[in-house]
């Protein structure tokens, strides 16, 4: 058995280092295809989105980067936006491209049968790389909506060849200290086939590109019942897990708050990260094995800044529990074939109330132990509601 006091100290040290990246689009209004409900105080531009994200960092101490989506976060001067982020206490994180809102992409973007459309989609990434250079971002993130709705609609194999070629061209645009992270999703918006439906397809393309290409695992992008922690293990073994898009799902790509639907799954995922010593955050070697813990969420009915704070603290709780697993006892039980004993060790950690440990962590960082209450008491929400009129939708208002 490992000494509990030293496990606790190690957990506190690791938690102090953990960072979680926030998506700019979490701060805009969002909804479903039925209705987008507005929220008072919603940001009117990318500068205000960053100001709101900085609040999440100010109260949690572990969310120092904001991911941008281009062109949702279009501004004239990206250096000014990065300076605003720095003045607010945060930095610009990943740059997400957008291949899903242009009429030209009806039949695909990087896989489109028409070379001109593919060239347009590649050129959009050159624009994104310029934003990376201006903001100091080191990661270009791609999610592809490409796919078909009917058997025979297009040639599955040709589409893979076109995709490989387009990705090569994008990879060639990157600087030496940049990396490309490639997301997968099993369906939607296409329903018969998707061109990057799973981690295996994403991994194959990344392996073909080079060592600075990594896979993004969005927790909402799997069929129900998928063992996501197993995918985490495989990608970590290959040194190709680049980032998480954390969120919760009940049905499909629900983008609800991380840890809300299935905190046990989140714990199991983070345990595999801890088990592989992959928790350490930036700065990472672009070809190295650093994993970016990002949120990819939308707050349709709940308040946005508190929704992000809750998501961050849910991930911290899962991480704290994962760090408390008595790994020596677990290994001993596993080697002895003690099935129930091994399961007990894991469940003991999961059942621990880690809220006091996290309160201690925050106090040691000079923060209020209760970030939700502290944000509420700060008066920021009332201030932006009074100051900002006409806040925008998460994406389409860019
Ligand atoms: C669409 O499914 C999506 O939610 C992907 O998860 C991307 O990461 C996100 O949009 C932003 O492009
Ligand atoms: Mn995502
Ligand atoms: Mn998604």
Can you give a write-up of this model?
The protein is of the alpha/beta class and 398 residues long. It has one domain (19-324): Divalent-metal-dependent TIM barrel enzymes (TIM Barrel, Alpha-Beta Barrel), CATH 3.20.20. It is 45% helix and 11% strand. The protein has 14 helices and 10 strands. The strands form 2 sheets. Strands 1-2-3-4-6-8-9-10 form an 8-stranded parallel β-sheet. Strands 5-7 form a two-stranded antiparallel sheet. The longest helix is centred in the first third of the chain and has 21 residues, at 115-135. The model has no long low-confidence stretch (mean pLDDT 95). The protein binds alpha-D-psicofuranose and manganese (II) ion (2 copies). Alpha-D-psicofuranose (PSV) is lined by residues 96, 143, 183, 185, 218, 245, 253, 296. GO terms for molecular function: L-rhamnose isomerase activity; metal ion binding. It holds the Pfam family AP_endonuc_2.
């Amino acid at each position: 058995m490992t000494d509990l006091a030293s496990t606790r100290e190690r957990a506190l040290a690791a938690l102090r280092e953990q960072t979680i990246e926030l998506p700019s689009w979490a701060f805009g209004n969002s909804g479903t295809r039925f209705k987008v409900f507005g929220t008072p105080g919603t940001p009117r531009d990318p500068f205000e989105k960053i100001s709101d994200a900085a609040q999440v960092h100010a109260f949690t101490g572990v969310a120092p980067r904001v991911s941008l989506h281009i062109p949702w976060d279009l501004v004239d001067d990206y250096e000014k936006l990065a300076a605003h982020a720095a003045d607010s206490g945060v930095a610009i994180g990943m740059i997400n491209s957008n291949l899903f809102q242009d009429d030209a992409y009806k039949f695909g973007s990087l896989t489109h049968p028409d070379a001109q459309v593919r060239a347009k989609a590649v050129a959009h990434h050159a624009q994104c790389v310029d934003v990376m250079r201006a903001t100091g971002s080191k990661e270009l993130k791609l999610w592809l909506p490409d796919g078909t709705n009917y058997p025979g609609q297009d040639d599955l194999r040709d589409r893979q060849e076109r995709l490989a070629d387009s990705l090569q061209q994008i990879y060639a645009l990157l600087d030496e200290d940049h990396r490309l992270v490639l997301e997968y999703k099993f369906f939607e918006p296409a329903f018969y086939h998707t061109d990057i439906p799973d981690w295996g397809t994403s991994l194959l393309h990344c392996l073909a590109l080079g060592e600075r290409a990594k896979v993004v695992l969005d927790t909402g992008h799997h069929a129900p019942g998928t063992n996501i922690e197993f995918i985490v293990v495989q990608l970590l073994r290959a040194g190709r897990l680049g980032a998480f898009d954390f969120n919760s799902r009940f049905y499909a790509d629900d983008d609800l708050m991380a840890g809300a639907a299935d905190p046990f799954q989140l714990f199991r995922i983070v345990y595999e990260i801890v088990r592989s010593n992959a928790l350490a955050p930036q700065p990472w070697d672009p070809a190295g094995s650093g994993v970016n813990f990002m949120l990819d969420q939308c707050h349709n009915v709940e308040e946005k800044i508190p929704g992000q704070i809750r998501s961050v603290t849910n991930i911290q709780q899962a991480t704290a529990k994962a760090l408390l697993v008595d790994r020596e006892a677990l290994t001993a039980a596993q080697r002895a074939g003690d099935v129930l004993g091994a399961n007990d060790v894991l469940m003991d950690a999961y059942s621990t109330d880690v809220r006091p440990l996290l309160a201690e962590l925050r106090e040691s960082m000079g923060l209020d132990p209760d970030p939700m209450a502290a944000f509420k008491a700060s008066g920021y929400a009332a201030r932006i509601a009074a100051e900002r009129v006409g806040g925008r939708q998460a994406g389409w208002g860019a």
